[in-house]
Amino acid sequence: MTAHAIDEARHDTRTRILDEAERLFRHYGYTKTTVADIARELGMSPANVYRFFPSKAAINEAIADRMLSARVAHCRTIARGPGTPAERVRALLLANHYQTVEVFLDEKKVHEMVSVAIHEQWEVVRRFIHETTAVFAEVIAEGMASGEFAAGDPVRVARRTHQCFVTHIHPELVVQCLQDSDRAGPEEMADFILRALRP
User: DNA-binding residues per UniProt (predicted)?
Assistant: First the structure.
C-alpha cells in the first residue's frame, strides 16, 4: 500500500468515526455517548478509535470544527454575494442568528456539545470567532471604501459589530434571552447596527 493510500484510508476511518460520533451525540447527547459506543457502532475496538483521537473531547472538538467551518464557509458565500455592503452585513448577522437557533437550539443534544466547547474555550471556537470577524471586516471595508459606512478600522468595527449582536448568536445567550420580551429582535438589532455604521 502506498503512503498516499495509507493517508486516504486514515482520513476515511477518521471521517467515519466523526460521522458516527456526531450521529450518536445528536441522538443520545454528548455526555451519554462513550468512545466504546462509537467503536461498537463502527464494528471496531475503542483502542482503534483512540488511534485517531486521544479522547472523547478530541472527537467533539473535531465535530465542532466541522460544524463551525461550514458556518464560516456560508458566511463567506454571503459576503462575496450580491447586494450592497449594508445588505450583506445584515444578511451575515441574520444568517448567524438563524443558524445558531437551528443548529444549536432546535437540536438540544448539539447545544450540549457546543456548550462544552465554549466552556472549555477550545481553539476551534476562537478560530471561528476570528474567521467570522474577518469576513465581517471584509464587507465593512467595502462599505467604508464606497462611503456607505463611516471611515475607520474595519477589523475593529467588525469586532464591535459582533459584540453588539452577541446575544443573538452566542448559543447560551440566545437560550437565556429568548423569553425576554424587552430584548430587541435580531432584525431590529441588525438595523440598529447598520445605522451605527453609517457616516
Answer: 34-53
Task: Say yes or no: 117 and 183 in one domain.
Answer: yes
Structural domain of 35: 1-54
Cβ neighbours around 120 below 10 Å, total: 11
Residue/partner pairs of 29-37 with CB below 8 Å, 24 or more apart? 29/109, 29/112, 30/60, 30/109, 30/112, 30/113, 30/116, 31/112, 35/59
Query: Which pLDDT tens digit goes with each residue over 25-49?
Result: 888 888 888 999 999 999 999 999 9
Please check whether residues 28 and 62 belong to one and the same domain. Answer: no
Per residue in 48-61, pLDDT (tens digit) is: 999 999 998 889 88
Residue identified by cell 476515511 is 12
Same domain, 31 and 112: no
